[in-house]
Amino acid sequence: MMNELIERFMDQLEEGLQIGRSASIRPASPDITHIYVAGLGGSGIGADFVASFIAQECKLPFLVRKGYSVPAFVGPKTLAIASSYSGNTEETLISYAQMKAQGARLLCVASGGKIIESAKADGNDFIQVPGNWPSPRACLGYSVVAQLSILQHLGYISDRCLNEVEGAITMLRNDAEAIRAEAKRIAQKLHHKIPVIYIEDRMEPVAVRLRQQINENSKALCWHHVIPEMNHNELVGWTEENKDLVVLYLRNDDDFSRNAVRMDINKQIIGQYAGEIIDIYSKGTNFIEKSLYLVHLGDWISWELSVLRNVDALEVNVIDFLKGELAKV
Fold this sequence. Notes:
Blueprint: H1 2-7, H2 9-22, E1 34-38, H3 41-54, E2 62-65, E3 78-84, H4 90-101, E4 105-110, H5 113-122, E5 125-128, H6 140-153, H7 160-174, H8 176-190, E6 194-200, H9 204-216, E7 223-227, E8 242-251, H10 257-270, E9 274-281, H11 287-309, H12 317-327
Parallel strand pairs: 1-2, 1-3, 3-4, 4-5, 6-7, 6-8, 8-9
Helix pairs in contact: 2-6, 2-7, 3-6, 3-9, 7-11, 8-11, 9-11
């Protein structure tokens, strides 16, 4: 059951830290000028979180791509990470081959599959995570911590991020009961409604994660946007009353002051049209703790909504159908 996997999120983060500490990663060439990650779904969103976590520390550009193609700038001066929980994601395997052909320094994160086989055959470093989880999207913790560990081993970041992940584990365990209660309360407000998620731009991966979890776990559509960008376009689209829309503002006590003001003004405008507006504030003493708090709360919201909608949160038959049809071509 998905709820059992969500409950194990803190254990997964803890195990990921142990795996990361014991990983063997050879030093990177001093010629490396940027970091590039190829990954999709649960593996791709992990890289998005890493990008946000290291933004104020890592001196190299950190770029994430979710598709088949690899940009021309990827080459001998690129540290390239292929991330796929199963190790068999079609797009990531094709990207791996392109990154190899373009001469990038390759590293891999996977539980096994062809990605790990290729890494071993090509002599590339890799971090292999446990493969006994039935849902890749439930393995966000492994993906995030493995990539942070690679960067820490190579000296691109300090111990700070991993230490803050450790602090988040303690916080989430202490708040577990309250998080479940809050998630249930919010899910009840979202039942039979369409969620609209807004968040400050620096935390966009949190909104993407919640949207994807509602899509997959709750089997429902929703959308997200970020402040301040949506003030330059989407805000103008709020012109008609639709009481089926419930707007979630994911907020922090240290959001940039001008963004906090924007959110308050946005609420005045959007409140005329939406069915309800809900402020959800993070908890924690730093950016990583606050992000992981909102992630864990959002995962529980998606689970509680799946219960209300009477759907199987683990089931992804339409994705399996798509993969089966692709395999015929």
